[in-house]
Specification:
Length: 232
């Protein structure tokens, strides 16, 4: 469904992504792991066409490396960015509906009610403004908004970052259900957590893939994984 070949991203003289290849198949959940600065966010942003890049980028067999980000989203490649980006002056419900095109409504795999079922914590907060939400609530809204954009592949950038353990658990429970319906490409620094959800993973170091395989295999190579993730 998604295939990258020799993806490269540079910021001036810094080669943030240095020839990455990866695939995400239909129905798969794939983790992109690595320490701070390994190039995970740059990879996601390049896939979404938010950053200029070199290399091949194929989605559903079509070359999408020159498409505008909106067109990619229209085709079902939806990005939930790091930092959540919830609108402070809109309510939870209106934040969910932001950017929901007529097409997304027509093709909808998820309804607003589905989002409230996945994240029951948002039900009593429907009318609360973005500025009054906790980090975890904002993360739930950001994922919910992504779901209402009618994704076929949902890309998530560090959805657990800075959240309390109980909130991380709620978010990952929802992701396990979401995974039954759409493909996922998940960026995480917390490899253990990501590998409980994902089928496969890639580990990045300095903009390159240094290790990849089935989640169980990666989990078994904990010492090596830890050395790449910077806490070994
Ligand atoms: P993090 O978890 O901190 O987001 P990451 O694995 O997602 O890390 P990137 O954010 O993709 O890594 O960064 C990869 C490299 O590119 C790092 O060396 C970083 O310093 C550099 N970099 C990222 N954004 C920029 C930028 N806007 N300008 C210059 N260098 C950048």
């Amino acid at each position: 469904m998604l295939e990258l070949k020799d993806l490269r991203v540079a910021y001036g003289h810094t080669q943030a992504v240095d020839g990455i290849g990866l695939t995400v198949g239909p129905g798969e959940a794939v983790a992109l792991l690595g320490a701070n600065g390994a190039g995970k966010t740059s990879t996601l942003r390049a896939i979404s066409r938010l950053l200029p890049s070199d290399g091949e980028l194929t989605f559903d067999g079509a070359d999408v490396s020159r498409l505008a980000p909106e067109e990619l989203a229209r085709r079902g490649l939806v990005h939930v960015p790091e930092g959540r980006r919830v609108f402070a002056s809109l309510t939870v419900h209106d934040n969910l509906l932001v950017g929901r095109t007529a097409q997304a409504r027509r093709d909808a795999l998820f309804s607003p009610d589905d989002v409230y079922d996945l994240f029951p914590a948002l039900v009593p907060l429907r009318k609360r403004h973005g500025w009054a939400l906790s980090g975890g609530e904002q993360q739930m809204v950001a994922i919910g908004r992504g779901l209402l954009a009618s994704p076929r592949l949902l890309m998530l950038d560090e959805p657990s970052l800075g959240l309390a353990p109980i909130v991380v658990k709620a978010v990952y429970q929802a992701l396990a259900e979401i995974k039954q319906r759409v493909s996922i490409l998940l960026v995480e620094q917390n490899a253990t957590l990501a590998l409980t959800l994902c089928d496969r993973g890639y580990v990045l170091l300095s903009g390159r893939v240094v290790l990849s395989g089935a989640a169980a295999e990666l989990g078994d190579r904990e010492a090596l994984l830890d050395s790449y993730l910077g806490h070994g």
